[in-house]
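Look over this record as teaching material.
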Amino acid sequence: MPTTPTPTLVLDFDGTLCLGDDPIHLFADELSALVEDTEVSAQIRRRLEAFLAGDERVEDAEDGYHALFYLGAPLALPREQVAAAYQRSRERMEAGEGTVYAPEGIVDLLDDVRAAGARVVLVTNAPAVGATSWLESVGVAARLDAVIPDAGKPQLMSDHLSGLLAEAGASEAPQYLASVGDVWANDVEPAIRLDAQGFHIDRYGSGRTPTTASAPTIEELYPLIRAWAQDPTGAVRPQP
């Protein structure tokens, strides 16, 4: 007798479960320390702040990390130095610097999703350091069935999602997986490409498609996520 697939909700971390721009500010601090030209560094910071405030677009960036990537690209900083700067910024978060917060109602959402029979998986490019203890402090860690840090999105996201579908017995029923995140290329496009569901937190109004649904905040997507968890085969299909 066929086994019903297990619905799997995949969540991003920064900009999805963990809100607030301080992690980006800390990363910018660490990068600034690598730049000898203080005027150039200050200009990058000014443009970053304008982007985060929604006053200026930076290429096709969808979050502060992407904006920093574009703004800092002309500096040609060695990749290993940038990676080390990012790690230091996460360690500072782990040590208590910066303020971040969880979306209002996220614990209730995850309880409802799990009560409907779905599992919840965190897939993030962030390292475990700076994330694990915070997730515990806001009550989210206990509601995660698995965590995949250092995920290498977007390059490896399709592999992660395919693996999760296989684990859930849903390789032939990809609609049983829904991926939620604030970077379309990282979190939504790989899911849509697999014929799974992709919910886009479109903070800056990029309007990228296709998606199953998009909204400026994750809270506005809660009703659709709940509906998907209750009936994955009846959820709204991705829109072109």
The mean pLDDT is 92.
